[in-house]
Amino acid sequence: MATRSVAVARAAPTFRERTQWGMAFERFRAHRPAVVGIAVLSALALLCAAAPLVSPYDPEKTALLLIYEPPSPAHPFGTDGIGRDLATRILYGGRVSLSIGLLAVAVAVSLGTLVGVIAGFYGRWVDSVLMRFVDMMYSFPRLFLLILFGVIFKGMTLPVIVTVLGLLSWNASSSKPRGASAPPTAASSSGTSSRTRSRRSSSPRPSASPPRSSPRAPCPSSASASSHRHRAGATC
After folding, report:
1. 164-187 burial string, b = 16+ CB within 10 Å, else e?
2. Which terminus has fewer CB within 10 Å in the chain: N or C?
3. Is the pTM value of this prediction over 0.85?
4. Stretch 121-128: mean pLDDT, rounded?
């Protein structure tokens, strides 16, 4: 009985384009300590944000009858010298720390991106002046300026801390926007760098003419030709 073969058309493979964010997420997902760290930080941030819902205590309310209580189900971290719940105070303190960190990073990234884009776009003397200013900002001590501004503004308030930290941390975030906004040069537009061109120009070029072969010694014509062949291995 004859069998009939049926040709099945295979579907063309589809290729999905990988973006920068997708590749970064894949590398982050493959790094297990980073995944665990971001999970712990996210849980702590959520607990701090929901501190009024998590803890029933007031962080500033005192209870003189509960001084230096040990850890218990009612007070997981115990109480301090005036009866305040330590776990509640840690959660509310975490809210302040997260607010300072997020606002200071927002100020630093915004200012650094602005300075880097201006320096890379205009170049020349503008780039030189701004980059020397960035180098000068690296030499300022943060702790000394925090104390100085605290004395000037009569206390370390939240806006003072955010402003000082943001103004002293923007220089590290100005290098990448500066390189990305710089106009392309002639070497980069043609696809080769100046180092590659100089390497090509300094490397010796191969000669077009074939190598010359050394002349062969004449074969002896005397009667000792046979013995000379056996001794030297020459072929005429």
Report:
1. bbbbbbbbebbeebbeebbeeeee
2. N
3. no
4. 83
Q: What tokens appear for 222 in the block?
A: 């005397």
Residue 85 pairs with which residues in a beta bridge? 79
CA distances from 100 to 129, 165, 166, 202 (A): 30, 9, 10, 55
Contact 167, 105 (CB under 8 A): no
Q: What is the pLDDT of residues 25-72, one digit of tens each?
A: 889 889 999 999 999 999 999 999 899 898 889 898 888 888 898 999
- Cα separation, 154 vs 177, in Å, equals 37
Q: How many secondary structure helices (H) and strands (E) does the chain include?
A: 11, 0
Vertex 214 angle, CA 208 and 215, to 5°: 130
